[in-house]
Write a structure and sequence with these properties.
Radius of gyration: 24 Å
Largest sheet: 7 strands, mixed
Distance between the termini: 64 Å
Number of strands: 19
Shape: globular
Structural class: alpha/beta
Oligomer: single chain
Length: about 575
């Protein structure tokens, strides 16, 4: 019987998705020496997360979980708050007019200082956590509110960031969110597009074989088993001649879409950046054989309108103040144990005194009125360790933790909650590392355990790779689709590949034995007026007491998140008639 493991890694190389901006040469394509993993356990352990917050309530309910904002100190923070004032007012109405808490953060803080800020400014421990906002929107670039604040808050919160180089970006994004949340959903269900840039490098081959291909198969299986309602699960990315235009065309449709793309991200060119402006424009751009996909390519055209983008590439989300891997790569270089273009990789990493920044591609996509509502991506070197674990001595692929994100989004869950699968994996890696460090500390004179050292090194890489993923955009947004109740009316959707289906998919016809007017829920309950009456009675009870939502959802045999969405839309429509 198959155990789901492989006797040895299938791919050579380190799985680094970084390439030279000019020559398109992938970096660090060759593997480490076998003994390197044992000797070079990368120095220090990172901060360990606490357990996630109480999951007893509805994670998608703003009245229960609350929404808050983290801004820079002083007038700079005030100006940013003013730019998204309509969005703040909108979120306050959604959480039963409870005040929106505002937290002020310093412009610089390392991991230790960020943890102290959290204890002193966010969660002082003087009361229980019910009043703290679990949904947190950070305003400002990485040199205004440091990445360390976002990392420490993401341990158990639902955290996103808005960062634009001009004031208009904030206003444009806020207007886009309000437009989508105040309009009727465009579609009964969304679709997922898995797009791989097949450039022939070992890193993208490993990513395709261990993450993208099994991810598509897993999502399609869930659709066929009717555990996931989606209009289509589409695999794209021409394996012979991948191009930017193919991705831009695929993401131009009007139907709600979750895009999961994998490519190399642009690092520094051979001769270095021409200027700071050149670096901020190009670093993290998506590398295609026919050139880089830059922010200007997604700034004005219809690109994933109202959708959500998981952008898998080195520096795809941004460039930090310092890389988690700088000292490790330098040590390997000094020992002569890493062949290839290590100098160019180090050149791509941030230098002391350089400004950290959110990448241009997600910035321009988010400010585009016809662009996505959120972008998830990496703010450092992105490796394969987040989905291919090697610490057991065998390659164990974990595509499910990424597919979980896609399926959660297709179910209409708020984007912030979708990152939980990665945060749980991060917590597990931290826990394993802590036990290993503790074991070594208890027996400092014990002989060197090569197997344990190798495991520790791989876990360290996995931990930091997972920690590099962040959310850009408001964590409270959702894919603009109808509730899952209306999704039940769809028959099994089309499962397609780029070779046998286009993205302009029509709504599937009802399955045999079903009708368009009186379809049946899995529980056998009719969809007619009786069901509507039951929903209306439940909504009325929720308006009086939102805490009853779990019981009301159980009585209706529907998920809490779906009933909560119906309740909020019903109340917004009613209030609109009073204004």
């Amino acid at each position: 019987m198959s155990t789901g493991t492989k006797s040895r890694p299938q791919h050579s190389g380190l799985g680094l998705l970084l390439a030279d901006a000019d020559s398109h040469t992938p970096h660090l394509a060759k593997p480490l020496a076998e003994q390197t993993g044992r000797r070079h356990n990368p120095l220090q352990k990172g901060p360990l997360p606490k357990l996630l917050w109480n999951e007893g309530g509805d994670a998608g309910s703003l009245p229960q979980q609350r929404w808050g904002v983290i801004v820079p100190q002083g007038e700079e923070g005030d100006a940013l708050l003013d730019r998204i004032a309509p969005l703040i007012a909108h979120r306050r109405r959604q959480q039963d007019d409870q005040p929106i808490p505002i937290f002020r953060a310093p412009s610089k803080a390392d991991d230790v200082e960020a943890a102290l800020w959290r204890k002193q400014q966010f969660d002082s421990g003087k009361d229980t956590r019910e009043a703290l906002p679990r949904y947190q929107l950070i305003l400002g670039n990485l040199d205004q509110v440091p990445l360390s604040i976002q990392n420490v808050q993401s341990i158990d919160g639902f955290v996103g960031r808005l960062a634009f180089d001009d004031a208009d970006g904030y206003r444009a994004y806020a207007e886009k969110v309000l437009r989508y949340e105040n309009q009727t959903a465009r579609s009964d269900s969304g679709q997922a597009l898995f797009f791989t840039v097949h450039d022939g490098t070992d890193a993208t081959k490993a990513g395709y074989e261990s993450l993208m291909a099994p991810g598509v198969a897993m999502a399609q299986r869930k659709v066929m088993e009717r555990k996931l309602m989606a209009r289509a699960i589409v695999e794209a990315g021409d394996k012979a001649t991948p191009s930017r235009d193919e991705l831009l065309r695929a993401a131009a449709g009007a139907d709600p879409m979750v895009l999961f793309s994998m490519s190399h991200g642009s690092g520094a060119p051979l001769r270095g950046w021409k200027s700071e402006q050149d670096q901020r424009r190009r670093q993290g751009g998506l590398l295609f054989p026919d050139g880089l996909l830059l922010g200007s390519d997604v700034a004005t055209r219809s690109f994933l309108p109202g959708g959500i983008w998981f952008l898998f590439a080195c520096f795809g989300a941004g460039t930090p103040e310092s890389s988690s891997y700088h000292h490790w790569l330098q040590a390997l270089q000094a020992q002569g144990e890493l062949s290839g273009n290590i100098d160019y990789v180090l050149k791509a990493l941030p230098k002391p005194g350089e400004r950290p920044f959110i990448a241009a591609v997600p910035q321009m996509a988010l400010r585009n009125p016809n662009g996505p509502l959120c972008v998830l991506g990496h703010v450092d070197l992105a490796w394969s360790y987040s989905f291919s674990e090697l610490d057991t001595g065998e390659q164990v692929d974990r595509p499910a933790r990424f597919v979980q994100i896609i399926t959660d989004l297709l179910k209409g869950n708020r984007v912030g909650t979708a990152l939980r699968s990665l945060m749980l994996a991060l917590g597990a890696a931290n826990s394993e590392l802590a036990t290993i460090y503790d074991r070594i500390a208890r027996n400092p004179s014990a002989p060197v355990n090569a197997k344990l050292d190798t495991r520790r090194a791989y876990l360290w890489m996995q931990r930091h790779d997972l920690a590099g993923y962040i959310l850009l955009g408001d964590p409270a947004v959702q894919l603009p689709i109808a509730t899952a109740q209306s999704q039940q009316s769809l028959s099994a959707p089309t499962l397609a590949s780029s070779r046998n289906a286009s993205l302009g998919l029509a709504q599937p016809a009802p399955a045999a034995g079903e009708s368009n007017t009186a379809q049946v829920l899995p529980s056998g309950e009719p969809r007619g007026s009786e069901r509507v009456d039951a929903l209306e009675r439940a909504i009325a009870q929720w308006i009086v007491d939102p805490q009853k939502l779990p019981d009301l959802a159980a009585d209706l045999s529907m998920p809490q998140a779906e009933l909560r969405t119906l309740c909020e839309r019903y109340r917004q429509a009613g209030r609109a008639t009073l204004s």
